[in-house]
Hints:
Elements: H1 16-22, H2 25-28, H3 32-48, H4 54-73, H5 85-97, H6 110-146, E1 151-156, E2 159-165, H7 166-191, E3 193-194, H8 210-216, E4 221-222, H9 226-231, H10 234-261, E5 268-269, H11 288-311, H12 326-349, E6 351-352, H13 354-362, H14 368-379, H15 383-400, H16 409-415, H17 429-435, H18 444-462
Helix pairs in contact: 3-4, 3-6, 3-8, 4-5, 6-7, 6-12, 6-18, 7-10, 10-11, 10-12, 11-12, 14-15
Amino acid sequence: MSNKMWGGRFSERPDEIMEEINVSIDVDRHLFAQDIAASKAHAAMLASQGIITNSDAKNIGKGLDTILSEIGKGDFEFKRALEDIHMNVESRLSELIGPAAGRLHTARSRNDQVATDFRLYVRDIIDETDAALAAFQAALVNRALEHAATVMPGFTHLQTAQPVTFGHHLLAYVEMAARDRGRFQDARKRLNESPLGAAALAGTSFPIDRHATAKALLFDRPMANSLDAVSDRDFVLETLSAASICAVHMSRFAEEIVIWTSPLVGLIRLSDKFTTGSSIMPQKRNPDAAELVRAKTGRVIGALNGLLIVMKGLPLAYQKDMQEDKQGAMEGFAALSLAIRAMTGMVRDLVPDEAKMKAAAGEGYATATDLADWLVRTLKMPFRDAHHVTGRIVAKAAEGGVALHELPLKEMQAIEPKITKEVLGVLSVESSVKSRTSFGGTAPKNVAAQAKVWVKRLEKERK
Ligand code: ARG
């Protein structure tokens, strides 16, 4: 028997391999809710335009509701022979309501149908990701308030650079997440136009109302060009780009957690909830969740690359290649969602070793810049000269194996006679961070104020 949805001119069954390569139900079944919502909107519009009768539209709507609840309850049999979600739903509809089901596909094609379903799906993903990122930000902001004055080493080149506060470090990721959310919102705005009614590629001769279906599905407007509507997947690419950048942020933070929890560093500790043991080395506490966040990033970026490559050579309009747009994207979005939730969990869970952080912040002459700045401010030395003098003082301290604040004043004065004992006031890590009061700087009072700004912003958003 040939396919009952499109088999009119076919007399033979497809080869098994044909069926195997053609089938997409294992992936696009995840679009069931969007597919049913779009079909309901389409049927209602067909009736109000007088293209089908009200009673057919009513039966179609009821039948679609039944299918939705069957799928929800796991009572629906997805058939591979029916290829995809669209034909699975339509075929079940005809079992449920008879010939009226055959009127649902008037003035549409699977080409505009799948484009519509996938837009709705990606829009839902964007909304879920936004909520997950807001929760991630809230977790960070709470910890930042708690640690606004906790001093830790700041690094460049992974070398101790200048003391910063742990709260400041955490707020850096709040800012990144805010830009990630902005990128998802930008993608959402451009995505939010309806392809439905573009039909196969050319539009339709039926007097449809595309504005009505767009509105019913909460799109801002119908897409203006039918060829474009069925043939672009830039909305997926754009969302995957935002997802990739976001995943890179998660991955960088995850990498820091891996470094910080290493016994060699030991700046933070994760509880049993976010570590795993080794099957052979009983002493181990591995930061597996952080490592996997780092790895999941590869899946997200891979999904973006994969789809860019699928799309790059396709002429207008719909090509079957586009059926390969869903699997990688869905897996990529799922990987990102898990990564964000795992990072949120670790942010809530981690405990900094404050004593170790403070000690590490003072190592490696991290307050050398403070000394140079003091020479500039108090002795009116040009910064370049101050830099040179400080370098000689650091070398002297290193020679004696002591920290800057432990170096006898006399030794400093041997290098620069005008140095007074007041200099000792700027050499501690606390005084260093306290002095960084420039806008966006790491001073505890800046950090506390900035964290409070975020608390308010996030609260306001929730209303
Ligand atoms: N399963 C298809 C997809 O995901 C639906 C569109 C098929 N259209 C067609 N003319 N064969 O792209």
